[in-house]
Amino acid sequence: MNLSVDIGKLKLNNPVMTASGTFGYGEEYSEFVDLDRLGAVVVKGLSLQPREGNPPPRIIETPAGMLNAIGLQNIGIGRFVKEKLPFLRRFGTKVIVNFFGDSIEEYSEAARRLSGEEGIHGLEMNISCPNKEAGWCIFGTDPRVTFEVVSAVRKVTDLTLIVKLSPNVTDIATMARAAEEAGADALSLINTITGMAIDAFTRKPKLGNITGGLSGPAVKPVALRMVWEVHKAVKVPIVGMGGIMNAQDAIEFFIAGATAVAVGTANFVKPAAIGDIINGIERFMTDNAVPDVKELIGSLIT
Amino acid sequence: MSRYFKAEITENISLNKDYSLLTFHPLTSSIDPGPGQFYMIGCVSDGGGSPESPAFKYVYDPLLKRPFSLFRRTDKGFQVLYRIRGKGTAIIRDMRKGAVVDVLGPLGNSYPMPPENKTALVVAGGLGIASVFYLAEKIAGSGGSAHIHYGARTETDLLMVEDLRTIAGTLNISTDDGSCGEQGCVTDMLGDFLAQNQTAAAAGVIYACGPHRMLEAVSVIAKERGIEAYISAEERMACGIGACLGCVIKTVNGYKRVCKEGPVFRAEEIVW
Questions:
Q1: What integer pLDDT is reported at residue B57 of this predicted model?
Q2: Which of A52, A92, B149, B243 has the fewest CB atoms within 10 Å, i.e. the most exposed one?
Q3: Rounded to 5°, angle at Cα B45 from A278 and B128
Q4: ipTM above threshold 0.90
Q5: Which residues of A are identified as catalytic?
Q6: Has residue B112 been placed in a domain?
Q7: In chain A, what residues touch B63 (CB-CB under 8 Å)?
Q8: Mean of the pLDDT values across residues B72-96?
Q9: How many structural domains is chain B composed of?
Q10: What is the pLDDT of residues A111-123, one digit of tens each?
Q11: Boundaries of domain holding B190
Q12: How far is B64 from A60, CA to CA, in rounded Å?
């Protein structure tokens, strides 16, 4: 049985990775999951300088999902390299670092700094986090700006560059093509869908930031549709995510066109979820006579 | 030994229409909890004692586990005291003896036990009693005794008072409406106690859990009198193990995670 897939220059032992922001820096989950078993670990999004994040409450559950407004809190690239990366280097699994910036210069500088570090195998560029001020959001919602920022980052790194797309756009295929033309090796989608929750009695928003990003099973149908649309629009591989809770969900993403998948909110629900999903994919392949996971990619029958 | 396990519900007693006491027994060996630590319990049960039930795989609403302070340990297992507030806790209330649930814990840090020459001054507001009971019990078990100040809105919000009496050195009760004990705030009661018991005040360590405003008042009293104080914080959380950064509280050293650096913090560390 063959589970290996290629994402850009990265050869993954299996097509299952963690979704950025849901797995800390790996260490938090190493008690529950064998990190060597994972296709890749995608760490919590980093910026050049540490970020404090949004005021609480930052989390609220909604039907079959959750809203979060963490606000990109992170320890900064410097501390990550010094304090967290040595732990991850102990494992054979691939390490993909998610990063973001407030300007094109910051994106480039962050990518440059990360590219020189031993133990970082790929970069995932967050152009889509919905939690920052509106002005910042345009990196992920205006295809011309997306092209510009991805091109700038492409110039400074030889690492596999994955661009994470926002679902909060009218036409995801246009965004995908802009990132591909700018030199992205792969695309990951979807990031969370902007939403909000209100307390009927107090008439106040339930999140400190008022709005947040929706994730979990509630977003899966939207994510599948967007993966399918992007698969038809680009040639680069897709990392599909959005509400994957079990192996069957993952298989559905492969069929829609994803080469790999990322598991996010499920980690919060069950800390051992990602290991169970990898085992479940193997079981599915055995039970359904699928010798190579690549056979599933984009195999939707219409 | 794992912090993630399946547990059987051995008892789920309704105390009144708003509160229940759940006892669960881990099906595999688990880690010994400390006072102040908490568990996250899934709102999905198999309904009747099957750890392999498909319910665990396919039921996603409610989604996240709910955090509950360890109330105490009995020979039937670990107990959590909870208020029925929403969908998740309503489902947990209806779980029957013999049902199996998903549990993560013990999580977070613990209250440090008072040094031998110090007296524990426990302050609980409402359901905050769930977090400090086990501490008071441990103190009683090690030959010490805690002065417990317990306040709630009304008599029906006072929980497990008889059990509390057996482990408390002294137990002072207050309610907002005067339906039981003194009428007024538990923090006023604490203030009066400290004014009348200078020795206890001088050699005291405060442990408090309750509503935000109560904890703030406790921290002011502690600061004025120079008493060491620990508070247990509460915040909405998703993962419980420090990954999601959802449950932060503002401290003098920036945001800290209630589930990881807490839930117990030194009172002076919190930005109220």
A1: 76
A2: A92
A3: 110
A4: yes
A5: 129
A6: no
A7: 61, 64-66, 216-217, 265, 269
A8: 94
A9: 2
A10: 999 998 999 999 9
A11: 119-269
A12: 10
